[in-house]
Amino acid sequence: MSARDEILAAVRGALHGADRTERPVPRGYRSVAASNVVDLFAERVVDYRADLTRCGRDELPGVISKALGPARKVLVPQGFPVDIEGVPDAPDLDDYDAVVTTAALGIATTGTIVLDHGEGQGRRALTLVPDKHVCVLSEDQIVPGVPQAIARLDPARPQTWISGPSATSDIELDRVEGVHGPRALHVIVVP
């Protein structure tokens, strides 16, 4: 008898006479209270080494300017809801220091922002090439978990899911940021 046959025989023996009735698995432990969604999102975004600022809508232009810091050349996609200086797109994205976008939604349990490249978000490459990405998100766009995000997103639209600045580790586990996306992510949450 081969080792494979021995293992399968042992599994069959263990299952012999077992109750095979399917029962739903309770998933209540995964739920997030609605009152904690924004706070949990903020906590998780910071856990991923991104910066996070919460401010009022009237403070947004100043907060965006501060988040951009010394960035000189900024991309601001068409449909961005705040009037700030920048260009909507460019053929050579390497010449730009930062991009400012909105997002389709944020996910509290993972600290993820999701772009579906609609108004105010631009094409995918805009958020992958410049060294800094500043993303503005409303509190009502933050959902508790991935299932709620999937339910809200249009599967026919392209999506970019971002959890913190771009990072990878080499074989010695040395973290390197900015390899395949921005080195810095700053999320701004407004009411």
Structural features, described:
- This is Lactate utilization protein C.
- Pfam families: LUD_dom.
- InterPro entries: FTHF_cligase-like_sf, LUD_dom, NagB/RpiA_transferase-like.
- With 191 residues, the chain is of the alpha/beta class.
- It has a single domain, classed as Rossmann fold (3-Layer(aba) Sandwich), CATH 3.40.50.10420.
- It has four helices and eleven strands; from the N terminus they run ααβαββββββαββββ.
- A five-stranded parallel sheet has the order 1-11-6-3-2, sandwiched between helices. Strands 7-4-5-8 form a four-stranded mixed sheet. It has a two-stranded antiparallel ribbon with strand order 9-10.
- A hairpin with a 4-residue loop joins β4 and β5.
- It is elongated, with a radius of gyration of 22 Å.
- The model has no long low-confidence stretch (mean pLDDT 90).
What characteristics describe this protein?
4 helices; alpha/beta; elongated; five-stranded parallel beta sheet; 191 residues; Rossmann fold; four-stranded mixed beta sheet
Layout of helices and strands, plus pairs?
Layout (H helix, E strand, L loop, with lengths): L2 H13 L21 H11 L3 E4 L5 H9 L5 E2 L22 E5 L2 E3 L4 E4 L16 E7 L3 E2 L2 H7 L7 E3 L4 E3 L5 E3 L6 E7 L1
Parallel strand pairs: 1-11, 2-3, 3-6, 4-7, 6-11
Antiparallel strand pairs: 4-5, 5-8, 9-10
Protein name: Lactate utilization protein C
InterPro entries: FTHF_cligase-like_sf, LUD_dom, NagB/RpiA_transferase-like
Pfam families: LUD_dom
How many domains? The number is 1
- What is the number of beta strands? 11
Would you list the SSEs in sequence order as H and E?
Answer: HHEHEEEEEEHEEEE
* Terminal CA distance: 67 Å
Helix content: 10-25%
Number of helices: 4
Let me know the CATH homologous superfamily.
NagB/RpiA/CoA transferase-like
How would you sum up the major sheet?
5 strands, parallel
Shape assignment = elongated
- Strand % is 15-25%
> Biggest sheet: strands side by side, in what order?
1-11-6-3-2
